[in-house]
Every structure is written in structure tokens, then in C-alpha cells.
Amino acid sequence: MKIITVCGSMKFVNEMMAAAEKVELEGNCVLTPLFNPNRTSKDSYSKEDCIMLDKVHKERIKLADAILVIDVNGYIGSSTKSEIEYAKKLNKEIMYYSDIYN
After folding, report:
1. Which residues of 21-53 are buried (b: 16+ CB within 10 A; e: fewer)?
2. With contact defined as beta carbons under 8 Å apart, do 68 and 6 qualify?
3. Cα(94)–Cα(76) distance, rounded to whole angstroms?
4. Residue with more model confidence, 27 or 102
5. What is the DSSP-derived secondary structure letter of residue 10?
6. Residue 77 in contact with residue 102, Cβ under 8 Å?
7. Is residue 35 helix, strand or coil?
8. Which value, in Å, is the radius of gyration of the alpha carbons in the chain?
9. Who wins on pLDDT, 6 or 10?
10. What's the count of helices (H) and strands (E) in the chain, helices before strands?
11. Is 96 helix (H, G, I), strand (E, B) or coil?
């Protein structure tokens, strides 16, 4: 069993949740970003909230053995790129949605 943190754009929340379910059903512990269906973008949070959410997500990455990058159609945004770089600095395994679902 691994602890896996899911990273990716919230515009792919459906793919994110499907991937999280798949890897959890394989016996892994999955950590996902906060998802509130009433807030569909970072624009609905204050700057301070966004800073806190980023900080907390980095803690999820620290706790994890690996990250799972949700790269639908090859899309990786700037926030996700920074999370990948952070995970690499911590020597975490990097897994990609496109490798799992293609």
C-alpha cells in the first residue's frame, strides 16, 4: 500500500475522483485536494485562502509516497507543475493519469 496524493487542475475534478477511486480500490491510501462543488475555481477564494490551500496541499505531498498527476489531454497547469517539482525535490514517485488510462 502506498499513500498517493492527487494533483491536477480542478477543471478535471471528475477524472480526479475517478482516478482516486481506482487507485484506492487497488489498496492505496489516497489524499485529494479540497473540492467544494459550490466553488468551481480558485477565483472564488481569497488570496489568503489560496495560499493556505496551497500550503496544505504541499503537506499532502510531503506525507505521500507518490503523487498522481491528472494530466487529461496532456494538460498540466502552472500550479500542478510546481507540485511536480516539489514532489521531485522530495524524491516522491510521480505517476500520471495518462499512463493509467491510456
Report:
1. eebeeeebebbbbeeeeeeeeeeeeeeeeeeee
2. yes
3. 13
4. 27
5. G
6. no
7. coil
8. 13
9. 6
10. 4, 4
11. strand
Question: pTM of the predicted model, to two decimals?
Answer: 0.91
Q: Give the alpha-carbon dihedral of 46, 66, 81, 49, to 10 degrees.
A: 10
> Cα torsion for 4, 8, 12, 13, to the nearest 10°?
50
d(CA 28, CA 69): 15
Query: What are the cell numbers at 3?
Result: 499513500
One-letter amino acid for residue 10 of the chain: M
Q: 23-32, 33-42, 46-55, 85-94: which range is least confident on average?
A: 33-42
- Grid coordinates representing 9 are 487542475
Nearest to 69 by CA among 99, 32, 96: 96
